[in-house]
Fold:
Amino acid sequence: MIRVTLPQHLRTLAHVGDEVQLEVAGVVSQRSVLDALEARYPVLRGTIRDHVTLKRRPFIRFFACEEDLSHESPDAPLPEAVATGREPFMIVGAIAGG
Structure:
């Protein structure tokens, strides 16, 4: 089971708690985790990734094992600790201001 944490606004939209657990077949990557998340919670489609390009939205960041994975290839395998469920894949809403 892959553990995924979501920012508050996406938890509210999907009506879930702090963390969701997903089954991911094959290589555990950003793409496979997000595909599984959107399949289970269709209301999240287009909120994390663009509908057409499937690129990460500008104010969304991805973290795992204390590393920012936001600019990594979406098909790169996630750390083993995420793939085994020891650590969560964190989706974070970035904060901007001035």
